Amino acid sequence: MKTTSNTTIPGRFSRILTLLASCLLSTYAFAETPPPDTPPTAISADTADAILQELKEIRQILEKLEKQGLARGPQRSPRPSHATVSIKGKPVMGSPDAPVTVVEFADYQCPFCLRFTKTTFPHLKRKYIDTGKVRWVALNLPLPFHKDARKAAQAAHCAGEQQRFWEMREILFQNPQRLNVESLPVHAAALSLDMAAFNECLQSNRHLADIDQDAKDAKSVSLTGTPSFIIGKTASDEISGQVVVGAQPIRTFDVAIDKALAEGAAPPNAEQPKAADKQPAG
C-alpha cells in the first residue's frame, strides 16, 4: 500500500478523515443552537482545539488499523432506534416519581459531551428535571482513545461517596484538558471534599468495575459514541426507550421527551386509584 509521506495517511483514510472533520464541524454547528432566550455563540478556541485533538486521535486509530490490516473488517452494527439498559444503583438527578427517565452515556474527554453539557442540558434541567417530569441517570462510556476518561469517571463516583457526584461531574466536563490523575484531587479540593477519603478511593479500584460494566452495557445495545441517550418511561431497574445519539439540538430532545410523556406516563405525584378504595355505587 502506498503512502505519500510520513505525515500523511493512505488516500482512503484521508477521505475518511475529511468526512469525519466535516461531520465534527457540522455537528458542533448544529449543536450550537441555544435555548430561545440565549443569544447564539461562535465556536470557542477550546472547542476548536477539542475538534483537532479528536481528529488526531481518530487518525492514530485509523493508521493502527491500516497497519494491522483491519480496516476492511466487519461493518459496525447499525445504530439502534430503541434500547434497554440497566440503571440499578446508578447516579440519579431528579424526582423518583418523574414519569420519564433519560439515561446518558458520557465520556468526560468527549468534546460533544462538553458541548451538550454547556448548551443543551441547562435547558433540559429547567424544563423537565426541575419540574418533576424527568429524572436523569448518568452512565459511563469512556472511549478507548481518551486515556483520562476512565479515571475521571472514577473520580466522579469517588465524589459521589460524599454526595457530590453531580458537582464533580460538572467540574470534570468543564475541564477536559485537566483530567489527568494529578488534577483530579485539585477538583475534589475545590468541592471541599474529605481529601483523605477521596484520595483513598481514587487510588483503589473502587467503581472501576461498574464503569466498565456501563461500557459493556452500551456496547451490548450498539451504542459506541458519546453522548448517547435512552429516553423512556420510568421504571425501577431498567429503562427502555428511544435512542438519541450525539450533541443534538434542543428541539430533538424536546420532541423525544414530550413523546415519552405523551405515551401514557402518569404526571408527577399523581395518585393512582387503589382497588380497595373503590366503593360500590349506591
What does this molecule look like?
The chain has 282 residues and is an alpha+beta fold. The chain folds into 2 domains: 9-72, no CATH class; 76-262, Glutaredoxin (3-Layer(aba) Sandwich). It is built from 10 helices and 6 strands, in the order ααβββααβαααααββα. It has a 6-stranded mixed sheet, sandwiched between helices. A hairpin with a 4-residue loop joins strand 5 (228-233) and strand 6. Helix 1 runs antiparallel to helix 2. It is globular. Residues 1-10, 25-33 and 266-282 have low confidence and may be disordered.
Q: What overall geometry do the principal axes of the alpha carbons give? A: globular
Largest sheet: 6 strands, mixed
Strand coverage percent: 5-15%
- Secondary structure class reads alpha+beta
Rg, nearest Å: 21 Å
Give the ordered list of helices and strands. Answer: HHEEEHHEHHHHHEEH
User: What is the CATH top level name of the largest domain?
Assistant: Alpha Beta
Distance between the termini: 88 Å
- Return the average pLDDT rounded to an integer: 81
State the helical fraction: 40-55%
CATH architecture call of the largest domain: 3-Layer(aba) Sandwich
Count of discrete alpha- or pi-helical segments spanning 4 or more residues? 10
* Number of separate structural domains: 2
- Strand tally, please? 6
List low-pLDDT spans.
1-10, 25-33, 266-282
What would the CATH topology of the largest domain be? Glutaredoxin
Q: For the record, what is the CATH homologous superfamily label of the largest domain? A: Glutaredoxin
Q: What spatial order of strands do you see in the largest sheet?
A: 1-6-5-3-4-2
